[in-house]
């Protein structure tokens, strides 16, 4: 008896690490946190968080990313108050870029967003006005972003970002590995929008238990779905975006020739998907925005030198600790010789002094 293994990794969205499946030649990009000009590393995907400085290459669309809306005259009220910029809304992230200094920019992936609200903010360009608050979490640290529309009377900033984020949150079946979900109805796969079934294979054993479970494979243009014949709720949905990671799922198909045909078909569909992924975020504006390439200005290297020993943390301006209900327990600091409130994970006294100076 022969078996083949599909490996899949559940996405971990954070600022410094991300892994997802890729066909040969398709590099899985990452969002990384930096406070100085990024080197020419691989471009980004895990929709997490990149802050303040990205390269021209990182501003370009990745396969499957679509520009949905472009808003002019948007102020980054939290980190660059008084600076007018452009806000780009794609199906994977929002990008803000200063109009006066293009190298000052930030990118926020939807998957790291905890909450989006509207509240009053103090803008240098608008004064007291309604603004968009975005609370995010990355590496157990919360960041808050505040955007203000400099143009009065326009709700477009709120409607675009909130609606696209909602579309992202309701389409996770395209991107996440799912177990025991409502996938099957009357022994048939419940198709997602833009999904097509390419093959249905009966007699597939799931090797997740000692005795195995007999079930059925559905192979589509977006994912692979298996369900047990005796219990439809015992199932798994594996998007192609998750294949080739670190979580191994084993299936057995007899005879060997049928197994090899299934593997060949899955590899072929995975390669096609990798060239043009379907992320499932379906939202269109009435007015089509310009392409991101037309809106992006190539970054010009400043004629300055950065002192090697001098470091700044560009994330400091965006820190958020809104859920703090009480002070942390006091601990003795040998550096200061007195009791201080316990620092949050990842923070040091030396780092805080550097921020102040």
UniProtKB/TrEMBL annotation:
UniProt domain BBSome complex member BBS5 PH: residue ranges: 65-119, 195-249
GO annotation, cellular component aspect: BBSome; centriolar satellite; ciliary membrane
Pfam family, any one: BBL5
InterPro entries with a match to the protein in the record: BBL5, BBS5/fem-3, BBS5_PH
Location(s) in or outside the cell: Cell projection, Cilium membrane; Cytoplasm, Cytoskeleton, Microtubule organizing center, Centrosome, Centriolar satellite
Domain of life according to the entry: Eukaryota
Main location: membrane
UniProtKB keywords: Cell membrane, Cell projection, Cilium, Cytoplasm, Cytoskeleton, Membrane
Function, in words: Required for ciliogenesis.
PANTHER family tied to this protein: BARDET-BIEDL SYNDROME 5 PROTEIN (PTHR21351:SF0), BARDET-BIEDL SYNDROME PROTEIN 5 (PTHR21351)
Similarity remark: Belongs to the BBS5 family.
Name of the protein this chain belongs to: Bardet-Biedl syndrome 5 protein homolog
Organism: Gallus gallus
Highest classification ranks of the organism: Eukaryota, Metazoa, Chordata, Craniata, Vertebrata
């Amino acid at each position: 008896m022969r078996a083949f293994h599909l490996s899949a990794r559940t996405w971990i969205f954070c600022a410094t690490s991300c892994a997802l499946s890729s066909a040969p030649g398709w590099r899985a990009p990452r969002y990384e946190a930096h406070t100085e000009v990024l080197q020419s590393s691989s471009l980004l995907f895990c929709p997490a968080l990149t802050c303040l400085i990205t390269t021209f290459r990182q501003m370009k669309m990745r396969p499957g990313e679509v520009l949905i809306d472009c808003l002019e005259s948007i102020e980054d009220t939290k980190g660059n108050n008084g600076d007018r910029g452009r806000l780009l809304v794609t199906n994977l992230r929002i990008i803000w870029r200063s109009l006066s200094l293009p190298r000052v920019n930030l990118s926020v992936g939807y998957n790291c967003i905890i909450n989006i609200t509207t509240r009053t903010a103090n803008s240098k360009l608008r004064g007291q006005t309604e603004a968009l608050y975005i609370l995010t979490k990355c590496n157990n640290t919360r960041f808050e972003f505040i955007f203000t529309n400099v143009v009065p009377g326009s709700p477009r900033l709120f409607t675009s970002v909130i609606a696209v984020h909602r579309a992202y949150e309701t389409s996770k079946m395209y991107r996440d590995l799912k177990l025991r979900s409502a996938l099957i109805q009357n022994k048939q796969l419940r198709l997602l929008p833009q999904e097509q079934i390419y093959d249905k294979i009966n007699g597939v054993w799931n090797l997740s238990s000692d005795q195995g479970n007999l079930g059925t494979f559905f192979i589509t243009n977006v994912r692979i779905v298996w369900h047990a014949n005796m219990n439809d709720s015992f199932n798994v949905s594996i998007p192609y975006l998750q294949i080739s990671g670190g979580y191994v799922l084993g299936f057995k198909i007899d005879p060997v020739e049928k197994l090899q045909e299934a593997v060949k078909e899955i590899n072929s569909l995975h390669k096609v998907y990798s060239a043009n992924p379907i992320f499932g975020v379906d939202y269109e504006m009435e007015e089509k925005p310009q392409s991101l390439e037309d809106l992006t200005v190539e970054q010009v290297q400043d004629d300055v030198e950065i002192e090697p020993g001098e470091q700044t943390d560009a994330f400091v301006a965006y820190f958020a600790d809104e859920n703090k209900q009480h002070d942390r327990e006091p601990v003795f600091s040998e550096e200061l010789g007195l009791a201080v409130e316990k620092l949050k994970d990842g923070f040091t006294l030396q780092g805080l002094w550097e921020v102040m100076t």
